[in-house]
């Protein structure tokens, strides 16, 4: 049973682009720090439709226990803490594949 963890998110229009890119860079560093991550994709939306989220993160984990370890990992916690002050929209979805 593999878990697919999908996160859609966006940042405030007032957020400096340099800070947004620093957050994205930090998130993209997580696969090198957290063994539980089996696959990782963090991409930016083409921005063609109203209401779309700017970023989509998709990560795969062996099971729910592995995903829970990822969520609690200090590197993940730190990355989320850095992102939250400028975050405006967030949606998460987890399912089996």
Can you offer a commentary on this structure?
The protein has 97 residues and is an alpha+beta fold. Helix content is 36%, strand content 33%. The protein contains four helices and four strands. The protein has a four-stranded antiparallel β-sheet with strand order 2-3-1-4. It is globular, with a radius of gyration of 13 Å.
What's a quick, concise take on this entry?
With 97 residues, the chain is α+β, with helices and mostly antiparallel strands.
Mean pLDDT: 97
Order of helices and strands: EHHEEHHE
What is the number of E strands?
4
Query: Structural class of the secondary structure composition?
Result: alpha+beta
Strand order of the largest sheet: 2-3-1-4
Contiguous helical run count: 4
The biggest beta sheet reads:
4 strands, antiparallel
Gyration radius from CA atoms, angstroms: 13 Å
The low-confidence parts are none
The percent range for helix content is 25-40%
- Coarse morphology: globular
Keywords:
97 residues, alpha+beta, 4-stranded antiparallel β-sheet, 36% helix, 33% strand
Layout of SSEs?
Blueprint lengths: L2 E9 L5 H12 L1 H4 L5 E6 L10 E7 L2 H9 L1 H10 L3 E10 L1
Antiparallel strand pairs: 1-3, 1-4, 2-3
């Amino acid at each position: 049973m593999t878990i697919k963890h999908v996160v859609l998110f966006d940042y405030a229009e007032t957020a400096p682009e340099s800070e947004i890119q620093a957050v994205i860079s930090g998130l993209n560093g997580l696969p090198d720090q957290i063994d539980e991550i089996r696959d990782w994709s963090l991409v930016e939306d083409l921005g063609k439709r109203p209401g779309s989220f700017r970023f989509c993160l998709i990560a795969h984990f062996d099971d729910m226990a592995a995903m829970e370890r990822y969520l609690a990992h200090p590197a993940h916690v730190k990355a989320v803490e850095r992102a939250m002050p400028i975050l405006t929209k967030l949606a998460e979805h987890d399912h089996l594949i």
